[in-house]
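Data deposition worksheet. Section B asks for the primary sequence of the deposited chain exactly as it was used as input, without tags or linkers unless they were present during the calculation. Section C holds the resulting structure in token form. Section D is free text for depositor observations; keep each observation to a single sentence. Incomplete worksheets are returned to the depositor.
Section A, Depositor: J.P.
Section B:
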Amino acid sequence: MNDFINLGRCSSSHLNMMIKFARLSVFVIFMTATSCRHDPVVPLTPQISFRDDITPIVIGNCAQSGCHNSGREGFDLLNYREVMNHVSAGQPYSSKLFTRMEINGPNVMPPNSPLPDEQVKLVYIWILQGARDN
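Section C:
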């Protein structure tokens, strides 16, 4: 009978081990939950070109008739200067141009057909690389 009663009791070293395990579990869960979104290493090459890579995306998807051209939607996206009004160089998640292209957002642009991941990735990397007019 005494053996049965002793099974329900924990020694202080066993209790300390359980507390350490619980703390470690909370830490692992916290690190997993907070590390889901991270910025990739900015590739130095190839350098994303505004003229060759970004302009076709913006003109073909945003600056179409009835959208972001000629002031219809409140602002234009017809040239580098206008695009940069909505970009924080080096900070894609602070850039309206990028955050509106993200598929996860409720107000994704373009509204009827989200951009392919590859195009969103190009815009993201271009902004990380400094959003240069090249």
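Section D:
The mean pLDDT is 76.
DSSP finds six helices and no strands in the chain.
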